[in-house]
Write a structure and sequence with these properties.
The complex is a heterodimer.
Chain A: E1 20-27, E2 31-35, E3 39-44, H1 54-74, E4 79-85, H2 88-92, H3 94-115, E5 118-124, H4 140-154, E6 159-161, H5 168-175, H6 180-209, E7 212-215, H7 219-229, H8 239-258, H9 272-279, E8 284-286, E9 308-310, E10 318-319, E11 322-323, H10 324-344, H11 348-359, H12 364-369, H13 371-383, H14 388-409, H15 416-431, H16 436-450
Helix pairs in contact in A: 1-3, 1-10, 3-4, 4-6, 5-6, 5-7, 6-8, 6-14, 6-16, 7-8, 8-9, 8-14, 8-15, 9-13, 10-11, 13-14, 14-15
Chain B: H1 6-9, H2 16-19, H3 26-33, H4 41-49, H5 52-64, H6 69-89, H7 95-114, E1 125-130, H8 138-149, E2 153-156, H9 163-173, E3 177-181, H10 189-200, E4 207-210, H11 216-219, E5 225-227, H12 233-244, H13 248-255
Parallel strand pairs in B: 1-2, 1-3, 3-4, 4-5
Classes of the chains: A alpha/beta, B alpha/beta.
């Protein structure tokens, strides 16, 4: 049974800060996340050939873990989280994931025992619930995903996450056609329904094994929109549409916490500041330190309220300064050191605002995700928190309003193209019904016809 | 919270897209490019606008007036799509416009096929797939749509495609180009296996690869690899092969930018 959020965790946006969550989370070996300090979260991917066998993968992750922990100790970092995002072999063969978690945790325990470094291991199984042609969200594939969680939880993972993909088939079709109703249906309705199922399962497994059900991210959809939108000069998607998709995604990603997750939210959930404002859970974020994986247009801004600071993912290989996990981990640790100094010296709110302002006017995406505006999107979601559709629609409408106010102030500059795209989205939203059942019925009829790979039975429809 | 003064923002960041936006609107730019023939004009315009029904109406009118359905594919649908491609290349319109136009054009081609027993001649055949173990296919879908919209026949092998299935398709279909996309580092290793198996069988053809974690350094490691940074590069690579032949070195000179 999920309990929906209908109020805000914080009385005002100004109460939100990095390194501090209303509901901190204890995890792993002496770590407490969101309890007054920030912690680096190092992310990595094995080299391509490492996926050839279970033994090669375990060896690769042992190297990654040892290198990461060694560098953290060498530079005096007081805490670290390692995140292992599964390659598909590790989730499809749950015992592989379990073996990797065990190998990593063994090394982390040795470092913790010897140096006292606070640390935790996050494992993120891949959402393998699909076959060649269709999403296959229920049945055998769902059971396999849950077995993967079970194995990693039993073998050393402290934090459980996933980047679930419910609704992606409709979203992928819709985002390439500027179809506002489809984006809302894919993320806000289908995605939310699937999240409730997945996270009820993950929360049960976490509870049973005494570990933390951490959180999800709308990577499959909102990040797809962000990546297609690209930089300022890219011409693949209006950035105003990408941020509307992001605002919608906050209602969807919130479902994890409503189903029993407690944070920290996943690093690539750029919607996390909105989620923190509603739920008070700690969050991981990534930005300037994830340029090894992708570019965004808000590299500092996303640090504003983070509790874990991540590099998203880097292929494990050698660099001039060590291995890639050592180089990027070190950068993360120094960023965290700066934030932690600000927290100790009473300058944290000033630093937070500087992070925010360095990107707030760079792009409509950063503008809406700036913590003051993110809080407003949070309020729009909580207002109709009991209704997945209405709260997603509210978030989209509020997002449009915020951008229009920014443009009116003269500080947020948009191209005519971006403004026209925003106007179209707003007109589309205004034309949509407030009746959730009617919206569901209309969309089911339409997308069953238009999207060949859409299978309503995935959602029990 | 702290805030910046309006006059201080430009010293911190520059929205180059705003500064450099062209004066002409997309519709105005398109209007200058449409063919003038009064039967062809509405078809090309409907393609640009992505209006399937208007495309069919325009085709019906042109056929009723005596135009040949196959000729209409090349002289109205492809011309309309050419306008869309040109505006996209020039940064005047965005990808969703192209996708909607491509949908409309494909509907138009299917309609033309129903009006004749002749078979339209594609510019070439391309086999597209997503690497084995990888289910992220939005990039491949964009590649396939853009190739079809540019007049190529696409054999779409879908996602999570086994290496041997790609090899079989190449042997059977004899394409001018194979494309492979992958999001993850661990799955893109399949590209090298495809390359090796093709070479074992004595098959030489360009193998255009791109997507999430794929980079030029990786693709350049195998003999047939040509790196495509953007989905739209697939069309440019195909066009380059049509115009210059399939030499891998020439393709790399043109498309390996880093």
């Amino acid at each position: 049974m999920v309990k929906k959020y209908t109020s805000m965790a914080y009385a005002s946006a100004d109460d939100m800060l990095f390194g501090n969550a209303k509901f901190p989370v204890k995890a792993g070996l002496g770590l407490e996340i969101g309890a007054g300090y920030t912690t680096p979260e190092i992310n990595y991917a094995p080299r391509p050939q490492a996926g050839k066998s279970k033994e090669k993968l375990i060896k690769e992750y042992e190297r990654i873990t040892t290198d990461s922990m060694a560098r953290m100790v060498q530079i005096g970092a007081p805490s670290v989280v390692l995140e292992t995002e599964h390659v598909e072999q590790m989730t499809n063969n749950p015992e592989w994931g379990g073996a990797v978690a065990h190998a990593q945790k063994t090394i982390m325990e040795e470092y913790h025992d010897e140096y006292g470094i606070k640390c935790a291991l996050r494992h993120t199984p891949g959402d393998i619930r699909e076959d060649r042609d269709y999403l296959k969200l229920t049945g055998d594939k769902f059971d396999l995903l849950m077995e993967s969680f079970e194995q990693v939880a039993q073998n050393g993972a402290d934090l459980l996450s996933v980047e679930s993909m419910g609704g992606k088939e409709v979203f992928d079709y819709s985002i390439l056609r500027n179809d506002t109703a489809g984006i809302l249906f894919g993320i806000g309705v289908l995605g939310s329904m699937d999240m409730e199922t997945v996270w009820t399962g993950v929360a049960d497994i976490a509870k049973k094994n005494g570990v933390v059900a951490a959180g999800d991210t709308d990577c499959a959809q909102a990040n797809t929109a962000m990546f297609i939108a690209g930089g300022l000069l890219d011409k693949n998607l209006a950035h105003t549409i990408a941020i509307v998709a992001r605002a919608i995604s906050a209602g969807r990603s919130l479902c994890a916490y409503e189903a029993g997750a407690t944070g920290p939210g996943k690093d690539c959930g750029y919607e996390n500041t909105i989620l923190k404002s509603i739920s008070g859970v700690p969050i991981a974020q990534e930005g300037k330190t994830s340029t090894c994986a992708h570019s965004d247009v808000m590299g500092n801004l996303v640090m504003q309220c983070c509790d874990l600071w991540s590099n998203e993912s880097v292929e494990y290989h050698g660099e001039f300064g060590g291995t890639s996990v050592q180089c990027w981990g070190e950068s993360l640790a120094y960023d965290c050191s700066l934030m932690n100094v600000a927290l100790k010296t009473g300058k944290a709110k000033d630093l937070r605002d500087m992070f925010t302002l360095s990107d707030k006017y760079r792009d409509p995406q950063g503008y809406v995700l700036a913590y003051d505006n993110a809080y407003r999107v949070g309020e729009a979601i909580a207002k109709d928190g009991n209704d997945n559709y209405l709260r997603a629609k509210n978030a989209a409408v509020e997002c449009c309003n915020i951008i229009n106010e920014g443009v009116a102030s003269g500080k947020l500059k948009l191209t005519r193209f971006e403004i026209n795209a925003l106007t179209k989205v707003k007109d589309d939203l205004d034309a949509l019904t407030d009746d959730s059942d009617k919206f569901m019925s209309d969309c089911l009829t339409r997308f069953k016809e238009e999207v060949a790979v859409f299978r309503p039975e995935n959602y029990g429809l | 919270m702290l805030d910046l003064k309006l006059e201080d923002i430009d010293g911190i960041l520059v929205r180059y897209n705003v500064a450099l936006e062209k004066e002409m609107t997309p519709d105005e730019a398109a209007e200058e490019l449409y063919p003038k023939d009064e039967l062809v004009y509405p078809i090309a315009k409907a393609i640009y606008e992505g209006e399937e029904d208007d495309v069919i109406d325009g085709l019906k009118a042109a056929i009723d007036a005596g135009k040949d359905p196959i000729t209409l594919i090349n002289e109205s649908l492809m011309v309309g799509m050419g306008v869309v491609s040109q505006l996209y290349d020039e940064g005047i319109i965005f990808l969703p416009n192209v996708m909607m136009s491509a949908d409309a054009m494909l509907d138009g081609i299917e309609f033309c096929k129903t009006q004749t027993t002749e078979v339209p001649e594609p510019k070439g055949k391309v086999v597209c797939h997503v690497a084995e173990g990888d289910v992220h296919d939005i990039g491949k879908n964009i590649v396939a749509a853009l190739l079809r919209a540019s007049g190529y026949e696409v054999i779409d092998l879908g996602r999570d495609c086994p290496v041997d299935e790609v090899i079989e398709a190449v042997e059977k279909e004899k394409p001018m180009l194979v494309t492979g996309t992958a999001l993850m580092t661990t799955t893109m290793y399949a590209f090298k296996e495809i390359n090796d198996k093709l070479l074992e069988k004595g098959i030489q053809l360009p193998f255009a690869c791109g997507g999430g974690a794929v980079n030029q350094d990786f693709v350049a490691q195998y003999d047939l690899g040509v790196y495509g940074e953007e989905a739209s590069d697939a069309v440019k690579i195909a066009n380059f092969i049509v115009e210059n032949g399939e030499g891998i070195e020439k393709l790399r000179e043109e498309f390996h930018k880093h």
